[in-house]
Amino acid sequence: EMLIKYQQHLQRQKQVMAYRMKRLAEKQVEIKKKTDAVKDKIRNKYEDMKRALDEDLRITLTHLDTEQKAAETLLEEKIEDCRSLTQELDKELLETLKLTDPNLIQLDDFKNEQLLCLTANLLLFIRSQVPVTKKLFQSAAEVVLDADTAHPKLIISPKGDLVTYTNTWQDVPDSPTRFDTTLNVVSQHGFSEGRQYWVVDVSGKTYWELGLTYPSISRKGHKEDSWLGRSKESWGLEYFNGDYTAWHSGVQHELPLLAGRQFTRIGVYCSYPGGVVCFLGADTMTPLHCFCTGTFTDTLHQALCPGHDNEGTNWNSLRICDASRSATSSV
């Protein structure tokens, strides 16, 4: 009996499940119909929108076409007006060109040639007279370097007009007049009257010193007194890596206006009776610095210092030039 009841229970459950499946199938059909209906309505709406947009596009493009045609018509009228004006301007320009033909205007070429010739002659005359300072330097004494005063690392040429630095200590006799720490050399002969001018070729060098000194300048030991211009006994001009400095009595005179300029020849002018020492760029007679001492108290000697190698940039020699020839060719 219990088995029969259980079979009946299962039969009822099976009927319920069959009914539920039927209802689900009916729901599936219903959802499909509703969805298809919504899709048809949406599709119809989009078709209506497309028709509306197509119509709006047609109207908009028609408006633009109409405005374009109106603008093109106006532009064609303006172009025609410009063409007419251009033709009129061409006629006026042709007439103007005829009236302004440069060939109708002539200069007196013969007179101009005469003026040019006269000014050329005047220029030659002026060049022969300037700079005026060169007149002071047309007579100069010969300067010969004294090898017996040269530091042992300096080589003096046989003529005494060239001094060269070398890293090698030369086998030279020591003497009271020889510099032993400073790379100096002085001239054989001094002067104690009149005016002297001399020129030194410093081309290709990055470090040098030159000037004038009394015989009493310190020559031994490590005192700076033996450097040119570091004591009252000497006057010097120093060049180092583009900078110029004038020295006297240990006082440094920086020359910033000359920074970056490089002169190939340096002139030194001294007026013994005037107590004046002047340094110049000899190529153009450019004043570099001037000392006014007032009164010299001893014989003056020319002095040179070619400087050390300066990291391999300063091997060139210092050469004493012919001062009279330098003066006459300075313009």
UniProtKB/TrEMBL annotation:
Domain B30.2/SPRY: 123-327
UniProt keyword NAD present: no
Gene Ontology CC terms, in alphabetical order: cytoplasm
Cited InterPro entries: B30.2/SPRY, B30.2/SPRY_sf, Butyrophylin_SPRY, ConA-like_dom_sf, E3_ubiq-ligase_TRIM/RNF, PRY, SPRY_dom
Keyword field contains Metal-binding: yes
Protein name in the entry: B30.2/SPRY domain-containing protein
A GO molecular function held by the record: zinc ion binding
